[in-house]
Amino acid sequence: MTSSYIGRFAPSPTGALHAGSLVAALASWLDARAHGGAWLVRIEDVDTPRCVPGADRLILQQLAACGLVSDGPVLWQSQRGPAYQQALDTLIARQHAYPCACSRKDIAAAQTNAHKARHGELVYPGTCRPENGGLRGHAARAWRFFIPSAQAPVHWHDRRLGAQQQDVAHDVGDFVLQRADGLWAYQLAVVVDDAAQGVTHVVRGADLADNTPRQMLLQRALGLPTPTYLHTPLVLAADGHKLSKQTGAAALDLSEPLAALNRAAQVLDLPSATGGVAEALATWTTQWASVWALA
What we know:
Blueprint: E1 6-9, H1 19-34, E2 38-43, H2 55-65, E3 75-76, H3 81-93, E4 97-100, H4 104-109, E5 117-118, E6 121-122, E7 142-145, E8 154-158, E9 162-166, H5 168-171, E10 176-178, H6 186-196, E11 201-205, H7 212-222, E12 228-232, H8 257-267, H9 277-291
Parallel strand pairs: 1-2, 2-3, 11-12
Antiparallel strand pairs: 4-7, 5-6, 7-10, 8-9
Helix pairs in contact: 1-8, 1-9, 6-7
Enzyme class: ligase
Binding site for L-glutamate: 8-12, 44, 186, 204
Cofactor: Zn(2+)
């Protein structure tokens, strides 16, 4: 146990919390409490076109109804533009970033067997890399992170999934830091904010595990610490796919908060609790270490 532990829950306000969101929120809160640490909430509203007005406040109300309240001021990514710009400027100065003129159509047209679609994303073929001629007179649309061709696969350890690795150069390519519409990409924003908030442990859904190697490369390039990661089980819809707002997941029914928390606890291999919300959270906190090893 360490009092220097800082965890976080970082929802996107594209709608109300759903059952899968509560699993991630509960897991991150319990891990922080079991470590004797702090738990923070960050509203990841950097993708403003997808955000629903008022969803951020609704999410905070939903969390409070479940007894999950941030131990510090809530941070909104939409207010963090200068910090992201400073990070991009640093990457440019260190030759870790370059401008890109490619549209999605351009990237799709350049796809080969070596640069096929991955998880619905197009692997960037390196068209605008400096050694390939850069912009070649075209206007810059976005900024990308430069991954050296000799970059070794990224190895990391997840507290639940175990040893992980990814060849980011081959499997992802140079990823976007700032989009063509001027908005900041998730990968850059999350790395900058985790460091700014002193986050030591990231507990989030397993669907985000694939992002971890990219974030680790950014952390190294910016000279920032790498947190410890734990990716939790997902709540699946009837069709077997991840429950999400994008697929129409229903908003949490919090008419009985303890019932919602018990359903989330079941996904986390914790037993059902009785009594009130506070009593349930206290019980699960004491059980957490035996189910999810503390590290």
